[in-house]
Here is the input.
Amino acid sequence: MFDINEFILKKAKELGFGDVVVLGYETNRRQVRFANNEITVAKNWHERKVELFVELEKRVAGTSITELSEENIERTLKTLLANMKGMAPKEDYYGIAEGPFEYKDIPETFDRAIVELDEPNEYVETAINAALEEGAKRVAGVLYTDHDRIYLTTSNGVEAFDEGTGIEISVRAFVGDLESGHGTNSVRVLKKFDPESAGRKAGEIAKMAQNPEQGPEGRFDVIFDPLAFANLLSYMSFMTSAYAAEAGFSFLVNKLGQKVASELVTIKDIGNLPNGYGSRKFDDEGVPTRETTIIEKGTFKTFLLNTSLARKYGTETTANAGLIMPHAWNIVLEPGDYSKAELFSEVKRGIYITNVWYTRFQNYVAGDFSTIPRDGIFLVENGELRPIRNIRVSDNFQRILEGIKALGNESHHIHWWEVSTPVSTPYVLVESVGITRATK
Amino acid sequence: MDVLEFAVEKALELGASYAEARFEEKNGTSLAMKNGNPEGLQVLADRGMGIRVLVDGGMGFASTNVLTRESVGEAVKKAVKLARAASKVRNEPIRFSEEDFHRVSYKVKMKKDFRDVSPEEKLELLKKIEEEVKATGVNVPMRYLMYSDQLWKKEILTSEGAYVKSKIPRVSVTYNLVVFENGQMEQAPFVQRAFSGGLELIERDEPWKWAVKDVQALKRLIYEGKRPPEGKIDLVISPEVAGIAVHESVGHPYEADRIFGREAAQAGESFVKPDMLGERIGSEVVTVIDDPTIPNSWGFYLYDDEGVKARPRYLIREGIITEFLTNREYAHKLGQRSNASARAINYNREPIVRMANTYLAPGDYSFEELIEDVKLGVYMVSFNEWNIDDRRYQQRYIGREAYLIENGELKHPVRRPILEITTRALWSSVDAVGKEVEFYPGTCGKGEPGQGVPVWMGGAHARLRDIPLRRP
Here is the structure.
């Protein structure tokens, strides 16, 4: 597709645009959805498109081009130009990165075996059967295979290519109406794919969750399963974008250099994480992706930036472009030194939450939110687990981070419907978490 | 049309028992302004085709944005192959309900066509919000404003004779405003005004007035807001709060695909079971309707994405569960006809069971009558945080703008009153409903990959007696 990119760049420059970014995609994605132990639908997407960003005297615009004929490309560029001429400039626009750059291969991000995989239904059956063997009655979920090629050309000397694959499964298992469990597995190379473990975990939790009692309310020490804590960190990943902070969607506003979490907490964005579901060699302006420490031992170190926002704040890009909106690639909460058993033995009376969904904020800048535990929830008392139901986590984001008092020693990479930015996290123990429930 | 016919015929030739081809084209612009700075223009031009088939009772879907015969033919082949493979991992074949189909064409007219309006004139709408908010004198240090318009063109052809062509324009303005006064901060996030139709609808709606009302209410909340009462009180909810409550606790749990577990791994299941039709769920004054056919509504359509003609759906009539939202697959399971709830957000998504415009039907009380005999209560006007469990039973809504009601009169603002309640308790507690209906737009999330569809939510004011109200 580089010939198309080159053509777009040449025409854009002829028309007088300044900064130009052309990001071409060729994607092949397959999906198998299942519910009630059977496949409900199987899908295939094949797409070729170009995402285009142009700048004209500090006026910026973007579009996707899916019809890639020369005629349509020229028409699109002329439409953009005509629309931009009368627009007010974006006064805080400071340009894109100067290339060219050198890129390194990221281990375990491409596997020809996934490209050549004819039929993934056997993996679905493996996951369903594993959950049923653990005692589940109904199993639902989704499997994806991905094959992406990315072609980047910019007016600042970048020409970059990346090719990646992935396979992932998300499994939810039910014993009755109120008893369920969830497991996921997301990898970039086929030999690491383990649909059985996802099914088995979903089935195990569903079985353990049988005959739940109404849960309590108040403040409790809570162990968050990696699946549950990944949800919260996925929301936080958006809040670490400088764009979100400027727009009033972040509790991290005005907190650079301040302590925002327990000293145990180090959170990174790793764009070049081996086998990471969000890993890519370069960001949208061609800067090689890298590791950026967002929170180091509890102290907030940096927002995620592109070149323009970095220049605005007198610093360096963190290689997280999005040209308008910087975003995280793979959020990583560094593990601690507790085994899972040690973590549970720390809790005299608390709650183990295996999954959450529907995280919503009362106030983004203050960080007040609630989220609903879903699937198995357990009262933890002196090492014993008793299933409960119908509770809600109602607290403040910074307080949760400050309340972290122990971290498991194994990291789990989570990516599913509720966690769109991939997150690697261990089991997390947070003290004194607000728990509420409906009283009528 | 030719390529749609080609796709359907090819699918049948390859062994499909049912085939549906859907062409969609979306064109539009969006503009954002952040703290007074224009953030740039986004031009949307997207089109493509989706093909859904049944083969041996399995369902397959494929899409392409290359609209040549060769590429469409490949997509059809893939859909058929996937459906055939899927049929082998099924306990019972998928079947569709019998329906009457039409060959129709319809469109929503624009009095002021947004295609004829320059981006700078559209940006003026956002500037007007900036200016009006600034003119209030309220300190609003973070202001994120967005304008968006899209013209949706769609053509659907099915192997059972449905052909529906439609053209629906959609316009919206969204804002996030953070008020900082007296060392305190309050926020009105993701407030949207949105319609199907031309730019005149936004101009007539005057979104800047909504923004001004919001920042003034938040400032008053900061200076005059007190803790809300706690314990059993009466609660009057506005059309906006009634709207989110009917959407979350009536619309969603009545989606038949959820009831039968198809969405279990993502959007969840439902406390409602098929045998609950005819069961009482609320008081006699509660009637909830979902109606796609409301003119200029954000969730507007006249035919769904399976080609079935739309009509108002009475989900609750006088407190009784009367109807689920269905597509053809689940109508067949229920032994019914589809009520045209199949929607897809784009050509590359499958149609699934969705809401359109869900509302609490009006009663016969004026607002004054609703509050006049409330001794101690709260009037919740708008909300921020809300959520509900995945069976749609345990929910919570936290008030943004809210006031104390004392001896039949509205008093000072109250901070963050929390309604945390079960669905059955909520709708059983309603003893009176107001006369006037208002609607509020939203984007309803469901499906995987996600399909955010435009919906309106709303209704009349409602009074809930003896509610266990909480406070932070």
